[in-house]
Write a structure and sequence with these properties.
Largest sheet of chain A: 6 strands, mixed
Structural class of chain B: mainly alpha
Strand order of the largest sheet of chain A: 1-2-6-3-5-4
Distance between the termini of chain A: 90 Å
Helix content of chain A: 40-55%
Number of domains of chain A: 4
Helix content of chain B: 55-70%
Strand content of chain B: under 5%
CATH architecture of chain B: Orthogonal Bundle
CATH class of chain B: Mainly Alpha
Radius of gyration of chain A: 32 Å
Number of helices of chain A: 26
Membrane topology (chain B): Peripheral membrane protein
CATH architecture of the largest domain in chain A: 2-Layer Sandwich
Oligomer: heterodimer
Number of domains of chain B: 1
CATH superfamily of chain B: Cytochrome b-c1 complex subunit 7
Radius of gyration of chain B: 19 Å
Shape of chain B: flat
Number of strands of chain A: 13
Strand content of chain A: 5-15%
Family (chain B): Belongs to the UQCRB/QCR7 family.
Protein name (chain B): Cytochrome b-c1 complex subunit 7
Function (chain B): Component of the ubiquinol-cytochrome c oxidoreductase, a multisubunit transmembrane complex that is part of the mitochondrial electron transport chain which drives oxidative phosphorylation.
Pfam family, one (chain B): UCR_14kD
Number of strands of chain B: 0
Structural class of chain A: alpha+beta
Largest sheet of chain B: none
């Protein structure tokens, strides 16, 4: 019998001696060939992936297409996960528990964004018992009401309370990046209203849709192919061939954007970019992750990785590529105390920018490639990541990774390719999530990331006061709809379509449409503004070339439209009767301040109302059109 | 597992015996008088024990509410030394076991736990 440590050691040695070329030739040491990668098979229409290193223990798992991506209602994946190994039609949860204890086995159920995994680890000779158990769990669980109330619900609540800022931030980054599907939170927070969706009936329906021969894969690590084919056939007889109802399978689309969530206790910022999906040929992303790194791999040293060297004490930062079947997310996660997280986030983006500017030394590149290779080769080795990945590949119909080719691709990455990849990331839309003390945590724009076009377009209305500034939004890119509405309401200043709920903006708009006849009819005293308007209209009628230029110039002048609105509104207010006027004057008070940015520097902060008044006086004095 | 020792299953297995004893049983149920107070047979199960309390907690909210209503009405009637008007008596088809199936299930769970706690393992491999 060949024991596993010996094989692992062999593959490490092969890697260390830079034997990737040799590796490519022989595709792993011949003795290791069976152990290195999962071989897929179809046993009685059940998809099975297995590998056998002849060791004394076995891990057997059912990977179902029932992760949070596929759940039709929030919280169902979590519910189904907690219902695993509960009462079945044949035996009780207690009996399952005691029997497994007697056999020295371990049961686990967990989920990723795409897969739900029921896993059993046990001694090799107990394969029949555990095959039967797993099949019984997916085909015969009763989903009883009392178990839901007495066991499932309370455990979900306890786990919800443990969701920390890092997890919330990662979920928020996924939500910003993918909206629905992959954007669904991995674990609902205590604020997520799952109680209206999650009950034993909805979980049972979800189980019918998730557990069928078409939507599951059985993955075995350390079980012989013969044993599997002997036992899977009889025990998986009762598993339905097709799901009772199809789960949504919309393909993922990357959006990008920013989320900010206030939370006490812990702080986290996630900066994410489109990454490499499962089976995608993107060696640059893997090397980028290796180069950014973050977690030290050598004791008592931060190592060479950029993030480990960039972050300040009090915060940890690391880069990961979250690979899914049809999309990927390259995420830099920074967590720790608020101040340190802010500095860490700034430093991380700076590190990424330095890569995009080609500031990576050849030595670091070699190290990064070596680490990427190690990550690739050790990924399927001895831990459950490889198990889940093998199952996920099977249920999503992705060809398993060709190790030799992938290693070759990694070796082909050079500084130029890496630079181009980092540049593409920085030029695209980022997904940024900040969770914790929002007073301290930075906005994406402060980090120097591209604003998302989706959010930006809401602000970049042609009438926006800052549209001609070099930095187009004075507000950070991520002003949410709610915040923007608040700003608009506070300042009585319309941003555009949805912000026109402000009463003053409506008033001003009405006046501008009515213009001269209305004012004249009311016999209002109109100082310079009216004359100016009259002049402007006359000129427009004349359509002379210079005049048009002047008009454009005056439009392009900052605040011109808003100033015009303010002037018109003031005129209307003054023309009102005394009792209405007092009320209307109060409405016209505004607190909005603005600053002009030139050459990347913020100018003086001025009050908009005062600036308008000044400009009006000035234009009246000069008789100009500005 | 029945909630109390009973001859009923043995009697029900034998049609001739069932036929013989049914009138007696019906007379007894009426004579017991709980139906005249609007109660069901399962309302009479003594609830001062852990298993019954657990079974009560597993009732649906509607069943639980109805049970409390029946008990309070019966208590009131008992205080007033009255019985319900005849049209409000519990009809035989209403007198269904709503608690005993749950109780049986709980007794089975307890028995299984006892068995598992006191078993001897015979190793086969």
């Amino acid at each position: 019998m060949i024991c596993r440590p010996a094989l692992t050691r062999g593959s490490q040695l092969a890697l260390r001696s830079q034997g990737a070329a040799k590796l490519a030739q022989r595709g792993f040491a011949s003795a290791a060939a069976t152990a290195a990668s999962y071989e897929s098979a179809d046993i009685n229409s059940v998809k099975v992936a297995s590998r056998d290193d002849g060791g004394p223990t076995t891990r057997l798992a059912i990977v179902a297409k029932a992760g949070t991506r596929y759940e039709p209602l929030p919280g169902l994946s979590v519910g189904l996960e907690e219902y695993a190994f509960k009462n079945t039609v044949k035996r009780s949860a207690l009996r399952i528990n005691r029997e497994v204890e007697l056999l020295g086995g371990q049961l686990a159920s967990y989920h990723t964004r795409e897969s739900l995994v029921l896993q059993a680890s046990f001694l090799r000779q107990d394969l029949p018992y555990f095959t039967e158990l797993l099949a019984e769990v997916i085909a015969g669980t009763k989903y009883t009401t009392h178990e839901f109330h007495e066991e499932v619900e309370s455990i979900i609540h306890a786990k919800q309370a443990q969701v920390d800022a890092a997890a919330v931030a990662l979920d928020a980054a996924h939500a910003a990046a993918f909206h629905t599907g992959l954007g669904a939170p991995l674990y609902p927070t205590p604020n997520t209203p799952i109680s209206s969706y999650l009950n034993e009936h909805s979980v049972a329906d979800f189980a019918d849709a998730a557990y069928s021969k078409a939507t599951i894969a059985v993955v075995a690590d350390g079980a012989s192919q013969a044993g599997l084919s002997k036992w899977i056939e009889p025990f998986f007889k009762d598993v339905p061939a097709t799901p009772a109802s199809a789960l949504s399978a919309l393909s993922s689309k990357y959006y990008g954007g920013e989320h900010r969530i206030a939370k006490t206790g812990s702080n986290s910022v996630v900066v994410a970019f489109p990454g490499a999906s499962l089976g995608a040929n993107q060696p640059e992303t893997a090397v980028l992750v290796g180069l950014l790194g973050g977690q030290p791999t050598i004791k008592w040293s931060p190592g060479f990785s950029l993030l480990a060297n960039a972050t300040v004490p009090g915060a940890t930062a690391y880069a990961t590529n979250y690979a899914y079947s049809d999309a990927g997310l390259l995420a830099i996660q920074i967590s720790g105390s608020a101040g340190a997280v802010r500095k860490g986030a700034e430093a991380s983006v700076k590190a990424l920018k330095s890569i995009a500017e080609g500031g990576v030394s050849q030595e670091n590149l070699v190290k990064a490639i070596a680490r990427a290779k190690f990550n690739l080769l050790s990924g399927g080795d001895g831990n459950s990541t490889g198990l889940v990945q093998a199952g996920s590949n099977l249920i999503h119909g992705i060809a398993p990774l060709k190790v030799a080719e992938a290693v070759k691709a990694l070796e082909g990455v050079n500084a130029e390719k890496l630079k181009a990849a980092a540049k593409t990331l920085l030029e695209g839309k980022a997904s940024v999530a900040a969770v914790g003390d929002l007073h301290v945590l930075p906005f994406a724009e402060e980090l120097g990331l591209k604003p998302s076009a989706v959010v930006y377009s809401r602000l970049a209305h042609p009438h926006c006061a800052y549209s001609s500034d070099p930095r187009p939004t004075h507000f950070p890119m991520s002003v949410t709809k709610r915040e923007a509405r608040e700003i608009a309401e506070r300042s009585s200043w319309g941003f555009g379509g949805w912000a026109c709920a402000s009463r003053d903006a409506k008033l001003a708009g009405g006046a501008s449409r009515l213009r001269e006849p209305f004012l004249a009819r009311n016999g209002a005293r109109i100082p310079a503004e009216r004359q100016r308007n009259q002049r402007r209209r006359k000129r427009r009628a004349g359509k002379s070339r210079t005049d048009r230029k002047l008009t454009q110039a005056s439009l392009a002048t900052r605040c011109s439209y808003n100033r015009y609105l303010a002037v018109a509104a003031r005129v209307v207010r003054r023309s009102l009767k005394e009792e209405h006027r007092l009320v209307a004057e109060r409405r016209g008070q505004q607190e909005l301040r603005f600053a002009k940015w030139t050459g990347g520097k913020q100018g003086e902060v001025k009050n908009l109302a005062e600036a308008n008044a000044e400009a009006a006086v000035e234009s009246a004095a000069t008789g100009g059109t500005a | 597992m029945p909630i109390a020792p009973s001859f009923a299953p043995a009697v029900l297995k034998r049609p001739w015996l069932t036929k013989l004893l049914m009138p007696v049983a019906q007379w007894y149920v009426n004579a017991a008088g709980y139906r005249q107070m609007g109660l069901r047979a399962d309302d009479l199960i003594c609830e001062e024990n852990e298993q019954v309390l657990k079974a009560l907690s597993r009732l649906s909210s509607k069943e639980s509410y109805d049970r409390v209503y029946r008990l309070r009405r019966a208590t009131q009637l008992s205080l007033q030394q009255k019985i319900l008007p005849k049209n409000e008596w519990t009809r035989p088809e209403e007198d269904i076991p709503y608690l005993s199936p749950i109780l049986e299930q709980i007794y089975a769970e307890v028995a299984e736990k006892d068995c598992l706690n006191t078993m001897t393992v015979a190793k086969e491999h």
